[in-house]
What does this fold into?
Amino acid sequence: MEVYERILRKVRGAMWAHHRRLMPERQFQRILGYVYSHKYEYQIRLDSMTCVGTELGGKVEVTTTPSGYVKRVRINPDVEDYSFAQKRTLLLGAYAAACRQGQTIMADAELRIYEQFLRDLKPVVLGIRDNPEFYTVDGVETPLGMLQNRTVPSRTIPHASAYRPQEEWNYRQKELKKWMESSEGLKWIRTARGKEFLRGLPEYLPRGAPGRKKSTGPLDLPVPYMSMDEKALLHRNWEAFLDNKGVAEMMWNQSMVADKMSQDEAARRAGKAWHYPLNKAAITRY
It folds into this structure.
């Protein structure tokens, strides 16, 4: 859970750092709650599963849950004459084989949970990244200000090619409609496959039928332009706004510091550094 929380804190901090947007506390808790409930559901199912590990062509058999809890051990009488060390080796080998099976199952479950977590987070991250407001300034920052090489800053994502998933979906819908209204499409609609396809579209359902009335596109959350709850908080309860702002800034700073520390630690482990790198800016400034 700590990993998921750290990722979510980072996204939350990035929203404030880039856009001055506060992710609602409830959204933060809800996404973590989804992860927790998925883990819980998977654990219930994992506890009712069994993994079997064998040694000596099935003469020693250990049955465990995927988590490694031993359920049953079966040993053939032929193994009775083996020494204690050999018996222990065989048992541990069978147990390790069962645990390996369980590990692969649990890793697969964790991957599915992580995939769903990323799907929940995707619209927010896309809103932070794919927006035409990001720009880079071509210049050198000095203590007295910015030395600019050119007057016009170059946008990372130019306004013309700012692209959202919603637009791709709209384009696909338009193309589909155009094809279905062509002569070839009208012919295809009369076939069995065509009728089956139409039955799945909410626009072609009879009136009063249950279900969606129209097909909606993907969730589009343009973070820079959509006010979340900072404005309402600022109007009604400025103390809560300041609290949330402090939390968001702290999360961003913590994630940056943690990244730097993990980079330094990795560099030291790899033998690339033997102390914290000196802050060059602090030395060359004066």
In short: The chain has a mean pLDDT of 83. Residues 84-129 form the longest helix (46 residues). Residues 78 and 240 are 73 Å apart (CA to CA). The chain has three domains: 2-134, 165-219, 230-284.
